[in-house]
């Protein structure tokens, strides 16, 4: 069941998602060699609660009903998504994908950004750049009258043109009062196929892109997912509202980009 949102609901979703953007900026301020992902999550949780919201991820159940233990998913290097924050310090040359969710005034925010820890190898920097660009190519297609396959195809064809892998097992999703609503939003697909996009649909588009092969495995903690070949993966996510002519991006990387300044990631 796909719920089309009213303007008022979209404005509540915008508030929850702007808070995610601001939270990711607080995280961006701290990323450097030596910081732990547990510390990033602790700071994010405090910031979210100080702003009158709750971290949606904390307590969110997996398929076995086990609750996710933290406010952020922090996925380092070959980890694709759903990394549990831990006490291992980040190292120079690492990348860390930070996924953040908020619940504010009854509506959910969801957005993710992949950061560099100090200087990273050029091939990894390019992976981040292309993954972020692919997100915007998907968003360009999230317009009333197009189909969901147009969004996935835009992400997939762009990333595959660089030889990267597009993860199949995890996808974007509708978002509203629930973090995960219908429809599923794959990062692959064929043009002109899939459900028709309508004004008021709110979806999270979230390419998960690998430097090597697209195959993934679970790390065994009930959550973490990493690449089978152990090559790095990147993850960028925006929540958007489908409108006529152009999607509105409800989340924001502006706050993060202000913190990063000349550094793009
Ligand atoms: Mg997310
Ligand atoms: Mg999401």
Question: In percent, how much strand structure appears in the residues?
Answer: 15-25%
Biggest pleated sheet = 5 strands, antiparallel
Order of helices and strands: HHEEEEEHHEEEEEEEEEEH
The CATH level-2 architecture is identified as Alpha-Beta Complex
Bin the helical content. Answer: 25-40%
Number of domains: 1
Describe the protein's architecture and organization.
This protein has 265 residues and is an alpha+beta fold. The protein has a single domain (7-260), classed as Creatinase/methionine aminopeptidase superfamily (Creatine Amidinohydrolase, Alpha-Beta Complex). The protein has helices at 7-30, 37-50, 122-140, 148-160, 254-260; strands at residues 54-55, 72-76, 79-81, 95-104, 107-116, 165-166, 172-174, 181-185, 202-205, 208-210, 216-218, 225-227, 233-235, 238-241, 248-249. The strands form 4 sheets. Strands 8-7-9-14-15 form a 5-stranded antiparallel β-sheet. The model has no long low-confidence stretch (mean pLDDT 98). The structure holds magnesium ion (MG) (2 copies). One magnesium ion binds at residues 110, 173, 204, 206, 237.
